[in-house]
Amino acid sequence: MFTDAHLGPYAAQSANSRGRRYAEEASSSRSEYQRDRDRIIHCTAFRRLEYKTQVFVNHEGDLFRNRLTHSLEVAQIGRSIARNLRLNEDLVEAISLAHDLGHTPFGHAGQDALNTCMKAYGGFEHNLQSLRVVDQLEERYGAFDGLNLTFETREGILKHCSINNARLLGDVGQRFIDKKRPTLEAQVTNLADAIAYNNHDIDDGLRSGLLQEAQLLEVDIYARHRAVVDATYPGISGRRAIAETIRRMINTLIVDLIQTSGQKIKECAPTSVDDVRHMERMIAFSDAMFQEAQALKQFLFENLYRHYQVNRMTFKARRTITELFDAMIAEPNLLPPDYQLAQGESDDQRMPLQVRKIADYIAGMTDRYAMREHRRLYMVDEI
Q: Of 260, 277, 308, which residue is a domain's last?
């Protein structure tokens, strides 16, 4: 049995996991969270992340980040934080690599469109869909559907959840009903995600030309680090200066998070994961750093995510998703056989089940596959 003797008493221990939905024999060579990580890396949904939008649609350029590179960056940042706080790095990595598995094509625009389409059938939310992917949709094992991940990894994937949805999810949704905290590893992954996308969206925004560095110099956290770069490397400019600035911003956020969280853990003094679940959130930035991070997030929202060129792609993405959904609702036989219902369900059962399968099909598409499917259905000269 694996032991994690180097971890803090508040960390998630693989040997003390709440287990899997379907009992399996323990591995002789890997911990339970390492097995989760490996299953995620080898699954179909993980491979598809390479062709799913982060901010820029896949065909717009090879240098922009996608959901796969973003997930890898989250895992790297999360592991660094976890190591310094004596948390379980393998669990953080597993959650990080799985947290976007349920994302639609075209990023948040695709999610918003599919949520609107699904409004009469419970809506659509990518965190719930990520859990659905690992619990049901992946087909890799003879004994069960999904990947049969540990409770702790599944819990970490589910960052947000309404009470109504939580009631349908059993043990993994119970903490939302009881208003308890997830593991510290899940909390770390949540903020590692924010560090990754805020800073790397700056890089992609500048690379695309949608952001200008003169704009960013009005944001305190960027201006401060750019001044340090200029003082350290007189005459530096271009991509090298930007990379140095972003690298230092990421480091500052990580160091602040480690120091603030370490102090909170010391003050709260949890002695087990169960203690963590009943205590206040312990993984956090300092107040000053939180304000700077929020200012950066607001800047990106106003200047990048709502840029008119991004809005144009958002408009096309919403139309693509909506028209795919409408076509398949009207004619379910347009779906591949695996997504069509077998005969036997009553009509009142059939429609909700068929609609959810349509959502599964669309959510699993890559950007380019969704565009291709849309052309096939709506363009006469496409087959």
A: 308
- Domain span at residue 364 reads 310-378
Q: Is the pLDDT score of 342 beyond 90?
A: no
Nearest to 299 by CA among 371, 212, 234: 212
3-state helix, strand, coil in the chain (%, to 5): 65, 0, 30
pTM: 0.93
pLDDT, average across residues 263-290? 97
Confidence check: pLDDT of 171 > 60: yes
Residue 86 DSSP symbol = T
C-alpha distance across the termini of the chain, in Å: 55
* Domain assignment of residue 16, yes or no: no
Residues contacting residue 61 through CB under 8 Å, at least 6 positions apart: 208
Rounded to an integer, what distance in angstroms lies between the CA atom of residue 328 and that of residue 331? 5
Q: Can you give the three-state secondary structure of 12-68, one letter per residue? A: CCHHHCCCECCCCCCCCCCCHHHHHHHHHHCCHHHHHHHHCECCCCHHHCCCCCEHH
Is the C-alpha dihedral spanning 14, 267, 253, 103 positive or negative?
Answer: positive
- For 371, counting Cβ atoms within 10 Å of its Cβ (0-12 exposed, 13-18 middle, 19+ buried), the class is buried
Inside any domain, residue 193: yes
Is the pLDDT confidence value at 59 over 50?
Answer: no
